[in-house]
Amino acid sequence: MDPLSVTASVAGLLQAAAKVIGFLSSAADAPSTVRNVLTEVQALNGIFHQLSDFINHFDEQSMAQKSKISVEHLVITLTGCVCTFSELDAELENLKTDEVTGPKSGLGA
Question: What distances in angstroms separate CA 96 from CA 37, 39, 50, 58, 93, one per listed residue?
């Protein structure tokens, strides 16, 4: 994975994290699961910001700092995060739809 792909992945994850944080923060009387997801996404958002800074200033890093990060581990981590955020985004879209149309009944009505 080239540096531009990594940068694009991190930028996309930052946008997704901001979207999720915005949605979950506005949820009134959110169940504890939603509050836990919000906390985790906020933590990931901080990590992605640090990673973005590291990538954007990669040329300024010492060889010791650069060697601490395995490219393979970074690719695996980013791929997993992209998949997770995609699934979470789909779930949030379903919640928005449910808010407009009302709760779904299990009877197909």
Answer: 17, 20, 31, 39, 5
Contacts of 12 (CB under 8 A, 6+ apart): 82
Per-residue pLDDT tens over the stretch 25-41: 776 666 776 777 777 78
Helix (H, G, I), strand (E, B) or coil at 1: coil
Residue 51: CB atoms within 10 Å: 20
* Domain layout of the chain by residue ranges: 3-100
Contacting residues for 48 by C-beta, under 8 A, at least 6 apart: 10, 13, 14, 17
Answer whether 0.85 is exceeded by the pTM: no
Q: Give the number of C-alpha atoms closer than 13 A to the C-alpha of residue 88, restricted to the C-beta side.
A: 21
